């Protein structure tokens, strides 16, 4: 029975309306522009017979880029970048800005909200055609443009995550952001007339007349957006409540009315109560827990540590260090609070003296190499045991964690990827940092690195079981490995990267009829399989031995769980990671238990 009367502190935070006042003040304006674009300015798809098919194709964004267009932009001194994050987006960046450290460049950035039918892979090129005068202005006046292309109404503020990602990738000055409001003026509407929209100064305290604040950039009507575009809402609440992050069999009410919902509500309270990671009251919260929180900078990028207070007194005792790939950038002080809430269970583990935590991540594989220098600094500041350095991350940060491990294998003793597919994806099914190339597989296989992959049984990708086509996918949801053939191949690639005995497609398919429920539900042949019931849900665990007979690959599927981090996920990952060390002289894995 799902008892909706199951009660606990802060349960009201599951009501999305509670977070309304903590959303970006630009959201009502962005929603109005989105509705207008959908009704009046939508970029349509062309009939299939009229579409261009030659070019560079990105399956994640379903985007076809024309090489001659990229060359044309390059001749104007502009860099082109196209990808997807819930919505497709295109960045046009003056080339002289690329490669700069820090976020203080004097260049402006204009956010342009558009609507395009992205069933046509040429959508990104159509955007540049429709807004050619914007691109020309960016080339002449040397400002950046972020075209954020919704294919539906963007009522959840998806543009905010894209802006955050673009800032980190291109080191954009977050104090020089502007929102294109040309559509509002074209409709003959005053900004002040838009329902629910209230505009303030950068402090958020003083109301202003938005129409009087309009400026021009390259002839584009823009509204200053610095410090106004960020949210102070809950990522946890969004992931648990939103259909975007789960499949059709996910039972949201059952999760909320369970101990998992209770524990997540405790974490959400941090997101609700604190706006800034450096809030003195929040620092006292960590201090009372038994942790010292410290903020650091490396080459203009912030990293944050949480260390058991006793470690400052017992410096002779070395501590394991868990590197958590989670965004903690200075341009959004609340973003770090969200990260801490996301991994709150790790803070409890650290507060018991079991480890210290180090938060850091950027938005490209290469930029994340900076962690190596950060760790070198951290080892001089804290009593870190170099044999017990671990790394974890959720979703795309989990992919970053896996790639960092491939690049710095002697540095990392074990890795936990959270919310990722159990298999390794090839270029045949996707592109970008989702892909693990054959070369990367061989690099990973060359050094024995224990890995645990934990994700929800009800993730949006419907990645379990692997032994069938992706089940229960929501209509319109993109799934990289949707067929059994792709899923089986992705698992074979995982086995190759783990230096484990290969399994045939037939052996993988046969697990559909396994007597062991965990093996059947995860969908791969296992050396060990277990069903673990925790907090009202069945969770499935399988271990795979490598060719040396070591159980260094574990796959976990958490029952009734969408695309999010939970306390159980953290506990299971730490239980696995802590079993291993890395011999710094030989590079060999040490079995600690």
Fold and architecture overview:
With 593 residues, the protein is of the alpha/beta class. Helix content is 32%, strand content 21%. The chain has 20 helices and 21 strands. It has a ten-stranded mixed sheet, sandwiched between helices. α16 links the parallel β15 (414-418) and β16 (451-456).
| Spatial ordering of strands, largest sheet | 10-11-13-12-14-15-16-19-18-17
Unreliable residue runs: none
Helix content: 25-40%
Please, what is the average pLDDT?
94
Q: What separation lies between the terminal Cα atoms?
A: 39 Å
Q: Let me know the largest β-sheet.
A: 10 strands, mixed
Estimate what percentage of residues fall within beta strands: 15-25%
Query: SS-based structural class?
Result: alpha/beta
Q: Give a count of the beta strands, DSSP E runs of length 2 or more.
A: 21
Rg from Cα: 24 Å
The number of distinct helices, counting runs of at least 4 residues, comes to 20
Shape by Cα distribution: globular
The oligomerization state is: single chain
List the helices and strands and how they pair.
Layout: H1 27-40, E1 56-58, E2 63-65, H2 67-75, E3 78-85, E4 87-94, E5 109-115, H3 123-130, H4 132-141, E6 144-150, H5 158-170, E7 177-180, H6 182-186, H7 210-213, E8 215-217, E9 220-224, H8 235-241, H9 252-256, H10 259-273, H11 280-289, E10 291-298, E11 301-308, E12 319-325, H12 333-342, H13 344-351, E13 356-359, H14 370-381, E14 384-394, H15 396-407, E15 414-418, H16 438-446, E16 451-456, H17 484-497, H18 505-510, H19 517-522, E17 528-534, E18 537-545, E19 551-558, H20 567-577, E20 580-582, E21 589-591
Parallel strand pairs: 5-6, 5-7, 12-13, 12-14, 14-15, 15-16, 16-19
Antiparallel strand pairs: 1-2, 3-4, 4-6, 7-9, 8-9, 10-11, 11-13, 17-18, 18-19, 20-21
Helix pairs in contact: 10-12, 16-17
